[in-house]
Amino acid sequence: MKGRSMKSRLRTVGVVAAAFAAGATLGPLVAPPIVSAFAQEASGRAETYRLLNLFGDIFERVKAEYVEPVNDREVIESAINGMLQGLDPHSSYMNARSFRDMQVQTRGEFGGLGIEVSQEGGYVKVISPIDDTPAAKAGVKPGDLITHINGNSVQGLTLQEAVDQMRGERGSSIKLTIRRPGAEAPLELSLTREVIRPQVARFRLLEGNDVGYVRLSSFNDQTDTALRNAIATMRRQSNNALKGIILDLRNNPGGLLDQAVQVSDDFLNQGEIVSTRARRAEDAQRWNAKPGDITGDLHVVVLVNGGSASASEIVAGALQDHRRAVIMGVKSFGKGSVQTVMPIPGNGAIRLTTARYYTPSGRSIQGLGITPDIEVLATREEANAPLRDREAELRRALRNDNDTHEIPPLPPLNLPAGLADQVQRLPPEGAPSFDPTKPETDFQLQQAAKFLRAWTTAEPQRRAAR
């Protein structure tokens, strides 16, 4: 997730050399603790300098001996990116061009295919396709592994290099080779690049005009404004007769932290939304809700699945902890870390994991995800399929630190008796396959709407724990 609204953070570290004089003494010598600490620090610095010299030696050897001439900048940028990607799956280096592309993307417009990706085992792994983009229209799915681009293997490419190859001019074509879990043979997909202007909020009144449906596809600079417009428009269209809201965060890969905070605040009147804890205690932050609920205190159901990540999980976690909404679907992705984008003048920027975030109850969802209050599977096949394509499976994923502090239990749901039992966990035998153009085939959405109507009938005024 891109952190702190893209504001730059600059940290300077001064290295001070220390010199020590040793004197002779008789008998055992016990160094004072502070002298011992200085000695260890000096020893650590010496080892750091030795390793930096090693890097320089290898760089010179590559320049002199590699089979073909190398570009100094490309080699050093690859080394920097390797250092960052070796930390965790979400830290990386962006050269000047990639940084500009990322800034354009967070403003809600970019060129390419429309997929949120990570890297796994040398391949490009799809976190989620963005609605109404070439990738979504071609049938790219979360968990797909992109193994070749235009017939060339992605093995050996950095994630950014692979992304650069997938971007291009509008109208140009590209061929992806995909390995999909459960498929016997690789899939060959031909796509045409477009200027990606994802409609960040899609909304409509469901049948009966009493339930509002809003799908958020990502969290960019436009998300909160788009959500507010969606809610206001649906309240007008229904003549203020809405009984509840379904907020669909399925396959929403996340985005900006400040947008996640604002969207959460739209549904809350008070209390903590999210907090972050960094390496140093003084860098911890906390965001609290301000009075004002844009729904007018309506019942809310939030839909999540394995493609709901990062900012989506912040929103779902905040609304779940405050019992402001019922979370429905399947367990989310489990990305509980914050990345800060730090511009480097003239040389792009680094995206560095700088903190873990915590829901209002103090729990980290890192590697765990948001567990829905009511589980509803999209297909019957999911019932016997193992959970996969989650944060915990990524190489070098951060550990979860819930065991380091006490976490109070969540307050009860306080739903009318028997209401949750009315929700079906699995689609019936012979149910039609999901078709995005036919809402009646979306089993999770249909169960959410049925539940919401029954909820508002049994309990017209929401009584949520704050």
Task: Note down, in words, how this protein is organized.
The N terminus and C terminus are likely disordered. The protein folds into two domains: 87 residues, PDZ domain (Pdz3 Domain); 240 residues, 2-enoyl-CoA Hydratase, Chain A, domain 1, CATH 3.90.226. The chain is globular, with a radius of gyration of 25 Å. 27% of the residues lie in helices and 21% in strands. The protein has nine helices and 20 strands. It has 466 residues and is α+β, with helices and mostly antiparallel strands.
What key attributes describe this structure?
alpha+beta; Pdz3 Domain; 2-enoyl-CoA Hydratase, Chain A, domain 1; 2 domains; six-stranded mixed β-sheet; six-stranded antiparallel β-sheet; globular; disordered C terminus; signal; Tail-specific_protease
| Run of helices and strands | EHHEHEEEHEEHEEEEEHEHEEEHEEEEH
CATH class of the largest domain: Alpha Beta
Fraction of residues in helices?
25-40%
From the alpha carbons, calculate the radius of gyration and give it in angstroms.
Answer: 25 Å
| Straight-line N-to-C gap | 28 Å
Q: What does the largest sheet look like? A: 6 strands, mixed
As a percent range, the share of strand residues is: 15-25%
What's the architecture of the largest domain, going by CATH? Alpha-Beta Complex
Indicate the structural class. Answer: alpha+beta
CATH names the topology of the largest domain as 2-enoyl-CoA Hydratase, Chain A, domain 1
Gross morphology = globular
Please provide the count of β strands.
20
**What low-confidence regions span 5 or more consecutive residues with pLDDT below 50?**
1-32, 462-466
How confident overall, as mean pLDDT? 86
State the CATH superfamily name of the largest domain. 2-enoyl-CoA Hydratase, Chain A, domain 1
Q: Give the total of domains.
A: 2
The number of helical segments is 9
InterPro entries: ClpP/crotonase-like_dom_sf (IPR029045), CtpA/B_N (IPR055210), PDZ (IPR001478), PDZ_6 (IPR041489), PDZ_sf (IPR036034), Peptidase_S41A (IPR004447), Tail-specific_protease (IPR005151)
Signal peptide: 1-21
Domain PDZ: 99-167
Pfam families: CtpB_N-like, PDZ_6, Peptidase_S41
